């Protein structure tokens, strides 16, 4: 797929992957074997009928292709961009062993983008075909990340009135506050949200469930079922000396300032942002890559990603890691942070690292890092971003003591229905699994929606 | 849904303003100690402001703000009938209010407004409330009359001696504690003031609550911008606080962190003043 050149793209926030045109898409779709027993669909957590939609693309029937995808996936433009396809649909494609599986994600993205370009179901351009709720039932979703959006889309499509309560001023969850513009343009998320609104989904922002109102208040307002999709947004810190110095950030804060608050446009936008010169990102996952690449785009001279093990063990998607390296992000592997050092004004100056080596494989088969005695390194830095994971946000959970949690502090559900310990209250996404992926969150939203549809006696 | 301003009252010209606005979903659940996060315009920042009062019948809440930078200046441009773009709340843990006897409530600057809601809560459960308020000069004192309605005494300190004791609120507090037995001291105001109050009350071994004002972004525990050290542990002021045991707070760290964006804040405010100047000319 065509991409922006790394030298150009580190100076802008525009999307890195440029997407197919019609000709490239048809060529790619025609490669599909249209297998008798396709395996691609099994690899997709939301069960997209890949074979059929790809056939429509090959025939140039983009509208039909879109409607095929939309049957099971309410956020195709998003998934086409951020799904770890190599482990999912493409990983399961019959052509995967050849090293050249069908580029299902890219095709999905192309189909969704083309459809939305033709059908702007925006508020200002109301289309006749936009449907509204037809049934007297109403249900609610809490949080507006991909799990809730899918839950809402599934039921809205079946004529149910859905209201989403979101704590922040903008809907979309991690899609708007976490994943950067250059991987997932906000415009795409906005379009997907408009498509939902056109189906009658209502989104109420600035509603913190657990404080502005609680679950009982929602039931009292006549909602028959509630889906909790509040994500796992509480950032983890390292517990090291100097961690509260000026210039030490959680990845959540750094990315929220940039993405949700558009601080990269400061001072045209009011939220300020540190523009580090020598940036250190701690962690080895997708979030670390996003933070590192964002820092580069904001003008950092050097950006290091510090990781305890080696490049091989990094949990980040290969594609994102390579994008980062192409752009000039440097890796500092086998290094573990020990403490942050600052000046008298409390500003970060240095990070001290303990050098590590890989020991024997542990029970999980992974070689665990062990410190090399006496070997330390100092890096000069004015901005450190901690991307070592998140935990469940306790706000709603503490306000709802009846909600049963598992040992890790996430919501316990019935795996068959998605229902929590409170009747007619469902949950899914990161608040159930811990930090996972967009499409898994969507799968969970869909499962709960199916159960709700069944209980409301709707035909699936 | 709009958060329409129903009343705007200038408390100290050019400095402190009180705004009452419609927030029918927040008013019924707002408690003393809670705050809201507001955003004034589409490209605006999210800032926390304390809920200084509420009227659940009319569905309104009251905020009192000091104009210090871009967002508070933008807020100040809004008039009665205008709407605040986003208001999220009530946030933070409410003040622990129980009947315990005598409570001294100290407010400095705009902190007096926040302290007012807490003091009122203490009075409502039957505690004897002594209010101590301080400012540079008498024209900068706030809520004296309102506090007098439910306080056993309102003691005043001004730096220039234009009213009450000449000097700091902590001096008034010190002499009060020397002669009275008090169950709790509550302090809301500039960090330096809260730190000084904590030092005084430590001497008398009186339990003391302070309401911290770190920089915040989301206000619901998702970013960690608001983290403070309390008893050597990291706490998020927006969800674990904003009130903490004053004797355990690392005030110096908080003072440092409040300066994180000094340069950018000045730049932003300068740009605001230039733009606003231009608008006026047109
Ligand atoms: C930087 C980053 C990059 C990522 N990259 C990828 C990727 O490339 N591919 C991929 O598949 N996954 C990626 N992920 C993971 C993916 O984004 C998440 O797994 C997914 O968004 C989880 O969805 P969710 O529906 O559980 O909730 P979230 O997206 O977490 O949304 C939860 C929403 O609930 C709101 N909320 C929280 N509490 C309350 C409350 N009390 N009341 C009301 N609302 C509330 C929050 O404000 C938020 O908007 C990434 C994550 C991050 C942070
Ligand atoms: C829980 C909480 C409750 C608050 N309640 C009130 C209130 O009721 N009334 C009120 O006037 N203010 C209150 N504040 C402080 C208020 O949030 C800040 O004054 C506001 O964010 C400033 O925004 P600005 O864009 O106008 O100025 P900025 O440009 O952000 O800052 C301008 C100047 O103000 C200082 N400043 C910035 N943030 C803060 C802060 N959080 N505390 C103190 N000084 C700061 C800066 O150092 C700078 O000198 C509260 C803060 C918190 C955390
Ligand atoms: S939703 Fe994700 S996994 Fe499923 S087909 Fe689309 S890109 Fe592949
Ligand atoms: S498995 Fe691959 S080749 Fe076969 S139908 Fe699916 S996408 Fe086409
Ligand atoms: S303001 Fe973000 S965690 Fe408190």
Structural descriptors:
heterodimer; A: 460 residues; alpha/beta; Fumarate Reductase Iron-sulfur Protein, Chain B, domain 2; FAD/NAD(P)-binding domain; 3 domains; 5-stranded parallel β-sheet; globular; B: alpha/beta; Elongation Factor Tu (Ef-tu), domain 3; Rossmann fold; 2 domains; 7-stranded mixed β-sheet; binds flavin-adenine dinucleotide; binds iron/sulfur cluster; binds FE2/S2 (inorganic) cluster
Describe this protein's structure.
The complex is a heterodimer of chains A (460) and B (282). About 2% of the residues of chain A have low confidence. Chain A is an alpha/beta fold and 460 residues long. Chain A folds into three domains: 113 residues, Fumarate Reductase Iron-sulfur Protein, Chain B, domain 2; 173 residues, FAD/NAD(P)-binding domain (3-Layer(bba) Sandwich); 156 residues, 3-Layer(bba) Sandwich (FAD/NAD(P)-binding domain). The longest helix of chain A has 18 residues. In chain A, the strands form four sheets. Chain A has a five-stranded parallel sheet. The relative contact order of chain A is 0.13. Chain A has 17 helices and 15 strands. By secondary structure, chain B is an alpha/beta fold. Chain B folds into two domains: 89 residues, Translation factors (Elongation Factor Tu (Ef-tu), domain 3, Beta Barrel); 111 residues, Rossmann fold (3-Layer(aba) Sandwich), CATH 3.40.50.80. Chain B is built from eight helices and 17 strands. In chain B, the strands form four sheets. A seven-stranded mixed sheet of chain B has the order 12-11-10-9-13-14-17, with helices on both faces. A five-stranded antiparallel sheet of chain B has the order 5-6-2-1-7. The two termini of chain B are 31 Å apart. In chain B, 51% of the residues are buried. Chains A and B meet through β5 and α12 of A and β8, β15, α7 and α8 of B. The complex binds flavin-adenine dinucleotide (2 copies), iron/sulfur cluster (2 copies) and FE2/S2 (inorganic) cluster. The site of one iron/sulfur cluster has 15 residues of chain A, from α3. One iron/sulfur cluster binds next to α3 of chain A.
């Amino acid at each position: 797929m065509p991409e922006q050149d790394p030298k150009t793209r580190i100076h802008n926030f525009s999307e890195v992957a440029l997407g197919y045109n019609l000709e490239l898409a048809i060529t790619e779709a025609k490669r599909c074997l249209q297998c008798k027993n396709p395996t691609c669909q099994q690899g997709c957590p939301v069960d997209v009928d890949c074979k059929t939609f790809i056939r429509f693309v090959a025939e140039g029937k983009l509208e039909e292709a879109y409607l095929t995808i939309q049957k099971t996936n309410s956020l195709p433009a998003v998934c086409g961009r951020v799904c770890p396809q190599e482990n999912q649909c493409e990983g399961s494609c019959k052509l995967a062993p050849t090293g050249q599986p069908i580029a299902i994600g890219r095709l999905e993205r192309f189909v969704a983008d083309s459809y939305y370009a033709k059908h702007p179901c925006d508020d200002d351009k109301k289309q006749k075909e936009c449907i509204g709720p037809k049934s007297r039932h109403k249900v609610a979703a809490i949080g507006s990340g991909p799990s809730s959006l899918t839950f809402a889309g599934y039921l809205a499509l079946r004529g149910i009135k859905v209201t989403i309560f979101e704590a922040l001023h903008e809907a979309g969850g991690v899609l708007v506050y976490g994943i950067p513009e250059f991987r997932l343009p906000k415009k795409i998320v906005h379009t997907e949200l408009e498509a939902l609104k056109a189906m009658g989904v209502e989104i109420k922002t600035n509603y913190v469930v657990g404080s502005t109102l609680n679950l009982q208040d929602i039931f009292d307002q006549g909602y028959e079922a509630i889906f909790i999709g509040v994500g796992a947004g509480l950032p983890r810190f390292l517990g090291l000396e100097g961690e509260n110095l000026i210039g030490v950030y959680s990845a959540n804060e750094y990315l929220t300032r940039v993405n949700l608050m558009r601080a990269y446009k400061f001072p045209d936008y009011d939220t300020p942002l540190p523009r580090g010169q020598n940036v250190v990102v701690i962690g080895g996952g997708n979030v670390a890559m996003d933070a590192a690449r964002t820092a580069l785009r904001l003008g950092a001279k050097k950006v290091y990603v510090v990781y305890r093990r080696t490049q091989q063990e990094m949990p980040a998607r290969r594609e994102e890691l390579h994008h980062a390296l192409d752009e000039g992000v440097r890796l500092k592997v086998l290094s573990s942070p020990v403490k942050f050092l600052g000046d008298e004004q409390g500003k970060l100056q240095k990070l001290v690292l303990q050098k590590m080596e890989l020991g024997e494989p542990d029970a999980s088969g992974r070689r665990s890092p062990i410190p090399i005695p006496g070997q330390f390194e100092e890096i000069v830095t004015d901005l450190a971003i901690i991307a070592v994971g998140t935990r469940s946000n306790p706000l709603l959970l503490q306000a709802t003591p009846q909600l049963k949690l598992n040992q890790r502090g996430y919501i316990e559900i019935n795996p068959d229905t998605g229902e929590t310990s409170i009747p007619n209250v469902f949950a899914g996404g990161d608040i159930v699994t811990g930090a996972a992926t967009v499409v898994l969150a969507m799968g969970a939203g869909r499962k709960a929606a199916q159960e709700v549809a069944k209980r409301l006696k709707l035909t699936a | 849904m709009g958060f329409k301003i129903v009343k705007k009252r200038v408390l100290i010209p050019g400095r402190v303003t009180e705004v009452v606005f419609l927030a029918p979903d927040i008013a019924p659940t707002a408690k003393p100690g809670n705050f809201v996060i507001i955003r004034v315009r589409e490209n605006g920042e999210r800032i926390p402001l304390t809920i200084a009062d509420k009227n659940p019948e009319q569905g309104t809440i009251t905020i009192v703000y000091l104009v210090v930078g871009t967002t508070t200046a933008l807020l100040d441009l809004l008039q009665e009938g205008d709407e605040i773009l986003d208001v999220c709340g009530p946030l933070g843990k409410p003040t622990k209010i129980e009947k315990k006897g005598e409570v001294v409530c100290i407010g400095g600057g705009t902190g007096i407004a926040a302290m007012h809601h807490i003091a009122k809560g203490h009075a409502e459960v039957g505690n004897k409330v002594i209010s101590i308020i301080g400012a540079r000069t008498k024209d900068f004192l706030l809520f004296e009359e309102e506090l007098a309605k439910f306080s056993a005494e309102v003691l005043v300190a001004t730096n220039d001696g234009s009213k009450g004791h000449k000097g700091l609120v902590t001096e008034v507090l010190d002499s009060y504690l020397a002669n009275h037995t008090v169950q709790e001291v509550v302090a809301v105001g500039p960090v330096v003031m809260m730190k000084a109050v904590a030092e005084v009350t430590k001497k008398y071994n009186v339990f003391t609550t302070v309401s911290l004002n770190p920089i915040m972004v989301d206000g619901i525990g998702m970013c960690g911008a608001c983290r403070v050290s309390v008893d050597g542990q990291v706490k998020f002021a927006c969800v674990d606080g904003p009130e903490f045991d004053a004797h355990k707070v690392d005030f110096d760290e908080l003072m440092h962190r409040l300066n994180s964006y000094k340069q950018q804040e000045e730049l932003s405010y300068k740009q605001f003043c230039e733009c606003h100047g231009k608008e006026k000319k047109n």
